[in-house]
Amino acid sequence: MPCSGRNSLRHDRLHRAAPGRTELWPRRRGPGEHAEVSTVNLFTDVARPVLFRLGGGDAEHAHEWTLKRLASLPAPALAALRSRYAFSAPVDVFGVRFPNRVGLAAGMDKNGIALPAWPALGFGFVEVGTVTAKPQPGNDRPRLFRLKESAAIINRMGFNNEGAAALAERLAAVGPLPVPLGVSLGKSKVTPLDEAVDDYLTSYRLLHPYADYIAVNVSSPNTPGLRTLQDKDSMAALLKALNGPVPVLVKIAPDLTEPAIAELLEVCLEQGAAGIIATNTTLARDGLAESDQHLAGEAGGLSGKPLTERSRAVVKFVHDETGGRLPIIGVGGIMSADDASRLLDAGASLVQLYSGFIYRGPDLVRAVARSARPIRSHRAR
Ligand SMILES: Cc1cc2nc3c(=O)[nH]c(=O)nc-3n(C[C@H](O)[C@H](O)[C@H](O)COP(=O)(O)O)c2cc1C
Q: Which UniProt keywords apply (predicted)?
């Protein structure tokens, strides 16, 4: 599919807003201490404390509540958000035109229920999913934890989703977005690993007509055995099967060794993958604040600030190893515009946010989109 043709680029006006404070987790004020009106940040000082208290502090409750609100925003509200947050700095990557370099990472809107809200919040592309061929409930709750002092999240959602057919139906009803749409595919939990290719293929056939790119998720730590699909032979078989008109990118784990990544990159180049998404969440528990240590033992993938350096190292390795031949979407621990710039400098062409958006809100999207503006001509992208 001619990717940029489906989702025509709209040029949004830039509205400058007063600069907000930049700290991720502001110091609690003492009695008698007041925030100065001029430095109040609407998201970190007002919205976030309310959102983080919803459902008695249950992170998944807040997530669902927020998605529902975003899904039901009327057109005037979307227009108001767009005029505040949208930013145009177009760039072409793997044959697709992106209005700016910052996208919504997979997992935030798995079933695509709030699609019009994301471009209005400034995202230059949206990755829905991960979806699986069969609908599935995911793991038991609680399965999502905020590690606030560490600006991190642990999740073991387990691909809870309504299934590929339901997403296809929703995408058909919504119609084209003003930004490119990526669709992330995973393996259904009940499907044995040796039938994984057919499982991905089922989802691919249902969803590729709506996608500007397909992300093959073989790196979630929360589906037993899934990460073994990153092995050379499995990866080759999968990419061969998904060879079609839509660019296919492979999302990799930050926990792979360099030789394993190198082997995977070789397969991706051989099989004509369009790019790499680096990285998914980590099984490591480095970089946690003392006050979050009691959550370190929760099973699942860690994201956010503790992942910043590792994902940057992986992006740099992928870029160096391929000599820039495989475009990279950099994701993992982008908590500031500076983090994003450093990921771009390491070799990413585009970036995505998940945890940073939870902790910093849409101001971060705008800041990243604006700082990621310069087209770096020294790299083949
Ligand atoms: C709650 C949650 C659910 C996620 N679900 C998915 C998913 O379904 N598919 C996927 O590829 N990545 C998923 N991710 C990983 C993110 O897309 C991203 O790769 C990772 O969180 C690192 O980025 P961050 O540090 O900005 O959060 C999820 C992350 C979180 C926190």
A: Cell membrane, Flavoprotein, FMN, Membrane, Oxidoreductase, Pyrimidine biosynthesis
